[in-house]
Specification:
Helix content is about 75%, strand content about 0%. The protein is an all-alpha fold. The longest helix has 25 residues, at about 455-480. It is globular and about 100 Å long.
């Protein structure tokens, strides 16, 4: 036999190369299961043989080929010793489950990725991959995974629910909302999804929807502490929003509300000054003299307190504001007249026992300090209203004058719901003092539909929302006193009252209970920054930005920190991201941006930014800066107008501070 032609070897070598380049299922891969580096050696040897084939006898060539193949197969066989076959999908699934049970979430995620290589598009594996990333705290990766699934299957509950909750954790309620809306459509009674949806509404300021959702959850499960916390936070947010409406009026209801706020904060002198002015206005706000009497009482001005209580309750006619009798009970307790204190309290309970229980916060501490706690508790527990059967014969207005608020409220909430404004106002007053906040909100809601800024309706609505909010928070704290949400809410309330130290302690407790609670960390950062602890504040802000670099509030605070350090160039990227912050913060972002652009020499842009900030200027400082920017640009007319406005605001601020000085 002659020499084998060179092109025969080339064809043989090419076929081998083509075979091993195919998928693992091809026949050559089954016949020659060698690692690629060994096959490459075989091909090199074949090339060498082919090059010399023209000079070899056929028999010798065949022997060389046989030896080559046998050698390769022996080497491949040895190389494959100890190697196990590729695990099946079922085996990988079991491994992933085991890793998940061991809380090795990233390991489980890696195994689910291997499954998806073998079975691309396997929805259950992709959902589980997202779940493992979620449990491992890789929220952005989890969201990306879930969103890929939802692009093909938009109505799946779990990916919608978890994506929404992860966006909430990243402090992005706007992105969370549509996912949680779809999740609750799929499973309307799933409590966690409902709470997530309600929290989205709350954080977006859509308070009526938040109220509806949290209320629904408390009805589905009255043991849900998170729902009660959310409900309380919603009521208090609504109270704050409406309080802003009332504060923009010059009504005496505004002054009474402000005086009560001072009283709650322990600023008794301010409370006396503010309430005295309000009580002098005719017609007086209901029970204004009694509230002023308590302010005098807290200031240890007992004679002044007595006069105010007597102005509000006519002991001869036995009519007026029943709160005055509770004030007299407190007054007697402070005067060590135990018999008088218990007599006043007992008489008030006979007139309206529900009223006394509802308003016990006004007098309870005074009677307890006087050693009358046990007797007071007996009156509160056993008190009943005398002559209740006669109430039906009196009109609601007469019942109110007699201090019988519960009967008044019941009469107006009977078969005929009040429709005219006078009856609605009466219903709001009586229902508030008898503890029926639901009826207060109903009555005031109807009034405000007719007159959106009615001061009296706003006053009663604010009072009821505050009480309903605190009641809901109390309910939640009884169910779960160590809740991170509770501590964060308490911190928010303390911060609003100016107690930065107490607020910081509550925020830290919230973070200790839930380390990835970004809202609590951001609240703590704001608190620390307000308390001039800038380095500590920056650490908390950086934690939030590491978890969510696009968080607008965190970017604003970081920008503010850098601006005040005069690191203006570094502040710019943070402030630009902060332009998506809440409506309340946007003007302050523009104010900081104006400083950055002024530093860069861009006076025109600095003016444009500051013009968007002067809407919140309360002391003239922004207008003053704006005036000087106009001067830099050569615009003397606008500069003069801005500086004049700055002067007006400065004088107004000085006048307000004089008005509120303690007397």
């Amino acid at each position: 036999m002659g020499a084998l032609p060179e092109r025969a070897f080339q064809r043989l070598s090419a076929r081998l190369r083509s075979a091993v380049s195919l998928s693992p299922e091809n026949v050559w891969a089954r016949l020659i299961p060698c690692p690629r580096f060994l096959l490459s050696s075989l091909f090199a040897l074949l090339d060498a043989i082919g090059a010399s084939s023209a000079h070899l006898p056929g028999k010798l060539l065949r022997l060389k080929l046989s030896a080559t193949f046998c050698g390769c197969l022996l080497i491949c066989s040895a190389a494959l010793q100890g190697q196990s076959p590729q695990p099946s999908v079922e085996e990988l699934w079991a491994q992933a489950n085991a890793a998940q049970q061991a809380q090795q979430y990233l390991q489980a995620a890696s195994i689910y990725r291997r499954i998806l290589v073998l079975r691309p598009g396997m929805t259950e594996a992709e959902v589980n991959l997202g779940l493992m990333l979620h449990l491992a705290g890789n929220l952005n990766d989890a969201i990306a995974c879930f969103e890929h699934v939802l692009a093909l299957h938009p109505d799946l509950f779990a990916p919608n629910f978890l994506t929404g909750m992860d966006y909430l954790k990243l402090d992005n309620p706007g992105r969370a909302l549509p996912y949680l809306e779809r999740a609750t459509r799929e499973k309307p009674d799933q409590l966690e999804a409902r709470i997530g949806l309600a929290n989205s509404f709350l954080q977006l300021g859509r308070l009526p929807q938040a109220l509806d959702e949290f209320t629904r959850v408390t009805r589905l499960n009255e043991k849900s502490a998170d729902a009660w916390y959310g409900l309380g936070a919603t009521y208090l947010s609504m109270e704050k929003e409406i309080e802003g409406d009332l504060r923009r009026t010059s009504s005496p209801y505004r002054s009474v509300l402000l005086g009560e706020s001072y009283l709650q904060q322990g600023q008794n002198d301010r409370a006396v000054a503010t309430l005295s002015a309000a009580a002098a206005v005719q017609p007086a706000v209901p029970c204004a003299h009694s509230i002023l009497g308590f302010a005098f009482l807290r200031s240890s001005k007992l004679d002044d307190a007595t006069r105010q209580f007597q102005l509000d309750w006519d002991s001869q006619k036995q009519e007026g504001c029943l709160l005055a009798k509770l004030g007299m009970a407190s007054l007697d307790a402070q005067n060590t007249d135990a018999a008088g204190a218990l007599r006043e309290l007992g008489e008030a309970a006979q007139i309206d026992a529900t009223f006394v229980r509802t308003n016990s916060e006004w007098f309870l501490s005074d009677l307890t300090k006087a050693g009358l706690g046990a007797q007071t508790r007996v009156i509160l527990d056993n008190g009943h209203t005398a002559d209740a059967e006669d109430h039906g014969r009196l009109p609601a207005s007469a019942l109110m004058k007699k201090g019988r608020y519960s009967a008044c409220s019941a009469a107006l909430a009977g078969d005929t719901t009040p429709t005219n404004l006078n009856e609605l106002r009466l219903a709001a007053l009586c229902s508030y003092y008898s503890g029926r906040d639901d009826l207060v909100l109903s009555a005031t809601g109807k009034i405000l539909m007719r007159s959106a800024n009615d001061p009296e309706a706003l006053y009663w609505r604010i009072q009821s929302m505050e009480r309903a909010g605190l009641s809901a928070l109390t309910q939640g704290s009884e169910l779960n006193p160590e809740s991170a949400s509770l501590h964060a809410l308490l911190a928010d309330m303390m911060r609003a009252k100016g107690d930065l130290t107490g607020a910081a302690a509550e925020y830290r407790q919230a973070i200790a209970a839930k380390p990835d609670f970004l809202a609590a960390r951001l609240g703590l950062a704001r608190d620390l920054y307000s308390d001039h602890k800038t380095d500590d504040a920056e650490r908390e802000v950086q934690y939030v930005l590491n978890a969510n670099p696009s968080d607008p509030e965190a970017n604003y605070l970081m920008g503010e920190i850098l601006v005040n350090r005069v690191e203006l160039a570094d502040a710019l990227p943070f402030l630009l991201k902060a332009l998506d912050a809440s409506t309340e913060e946007i003007p302050y972002v523009h104010a900081d941006l104006s400083r950055v652009y002024e530093d860069r020499g861009d006076v025109a842009q600095a003016i444009a930014e500051l013009k968007q900030a002067v809407l919140v200027d309360v002391d003239g400082s922004y207008y003053y800066r704006l005036g000087h920017l106009y001067m830099k640009s050569g615009d003397r007319v606008d500069a003069t107008a801005a500086l004049d406005q700055a002067e007006k605001l400065r004088h107004a601020t000085d006048a307000a501070s004089l008005y509120e000085k303690p007397k």
